[in-house]
Specification:
about 400 residues, 14 helices, globular
């Protein structure tokens, strides 16, 4: 008996999850960056690997870039190359956390010359977006302080607003600024954008083209992330997701690996709040595959998101609303849990086959020989970002 109705399968047709280019390069821990045979040697090979994920899943039609990790001489050529492989270039991510100048901040730095350098980097990213056809400029800032008294907390917020305002003014009519937050790391006493409220306050002051990015790994243990999702959707300021999974801190693991139920709860609120299949809310992975193969890791992640979306779409919302209104605590919870425990995998496999896709994308990719081929063809690839 089928568990997924034609209506649910129709909703799943609209799902799109952007892949991060850096997920296909070498990555590791604070102690070691591990190399992998077949690692991309340039952004073109990263896009080629990302296109493999979309080939077997039809879930990942766009690839996010990271500047300067993905700098090339000809972005028009990079865009055409991606489109020839059946994908498009998506979000452009800035980088103000690797230069020595940014040791004490970038957009918040006391030194106007350092702030100027950081602002100009973002304006360069916007110029790249014009060439790649990208809509979103995503900003994550590794800025803060380690010790009480080290920094002027209010002054840094003021300088952040001034810097973001200049970047925002440089956006094209159809472009957006998306500000990510992270509660700690690499700064330990205070972080300049530590939570959704700070990000919201900063982007709300900029205007309608500024939004919040929610990374599912960027929260303290026990945080009710789905509540934050609800609030940002309610306020019309949830611009994008970075999906990953965490056990302790910002682990950047395969999405759903640590807490599939949390992923289910988040996706329910996305659907409830009108964020699903909404072009104004971008879904993206943000992961570093330290010990697993990169392409299968991304395939597994997008399939996990698809599966939990299917379960969330299976909730009997009318019965749930009735139970909530009548105060039926256990009844409402049972409706929610029944959907979570529903095994939708057989239906999804059959649905994929009906659309000309492999029932098991992981197995199909493994049998393709792609990993063996790139291991033989590519020598010396380190493309990821860190230390690249």
């Amino acid at each position: 008996m089928s568990t997924l109705t034609p209506e649910i399968l129709g909703e799943l047709e609209h799902q799109a999850i952007e892949l991060p280019s850096w997920a296909f390069g070498n990555s590791g821990t604070r102690f070691k960056v591990f190399s992998t045979p077949g690692t991309p040697r340039d952004p073109f090979e990263k896009i080629a690997d990302a296109a493999q994920v979309n080939r077997y899943t039809h879930l990942s039609p766009t690839v996010a870039l990271h500047i300067p990790w993905d700098k090339v001489d000809d972005y028009i050529r990079l865009r055409a190359y991606a489109e020839d492989l059946g994908v498009s270039l998506g979000t452009v991510n800035s980088n103000t956390f690797q230069d020595d100048d940014y040791k004490f901040g970038a957009l918040t730095h006391e030194d106007a010359a350092v702030r100027r350098k950081a602002i100009d980097h973002h304006l360069e990213c916007i110029e790249i977006m014009h060439q790649t056809g990208s809509r979103d400029l995503k900003i994550w800032l590794a800025e803060g302080s380690n010790y009480p008294g080290q920094a002027d907390l209010r002054g840094r917020q003021d300088r952040l607003h001034e810097s973001l305002s200049e970047i925002y003014a440089g956006l094209g009519d159809e472009q957006r600024l998306v500000l990510e937050y992270k509660f700690f790391e690499p700064a330990f006493y205070h972080t300049d954008v530590p939570d959704w409220g700070t990000s919201y306050v900063q982007v709300a002051a900029l205007g309608d083209k500024a939004m919040v990015c929610l990374d599912t790994g960027h929260h303290a243990p026990g945080t009710n992330i789905e509540f934050i999702v609800m609030q940002l959707l309610r306020l019309g300021k949830l611009g994008s997701f970075d999906f990953n999974s965490r056990f302790y801190a910002d682990d950047d693991l395969i999405v759903g690996a640590a807490d599939p139920f949390q992923l289910f709860r988040i996706l329910y609120e996305v659907i409830r709040g009108g964020g699903y299949a909404n072009p104004d809310v971008a879904f993206m992975l943000d992961q570093c595959h330290n010990i697993e193969d990169k392409i299968p890791g991304q395939i597994r992640s997008v399939l996990n998101v698809q599966e939990m979306t299917a379960r969330a779409l299976s909730i009997d919302t009318e019965a749930l609303a009735a139970a909530q209104k009548s105060g039926d605590v256990l009844g409402a919870n049972a409706i929610f849990m029944d959907a979570f425990y529903t095994d939708v995998r057989p239906d999804l496999a059959a649905w994929r086959e009906s659309r000309g896709l492999p029932a098991d994308p992981m197995a199909a990719f493994a049998a393709s020989g792609y990993l063996q081929r790139i291991a033989e063809e590519r020598v010396g690839g380190v493309q990821a970002g860190w230390g690249a």
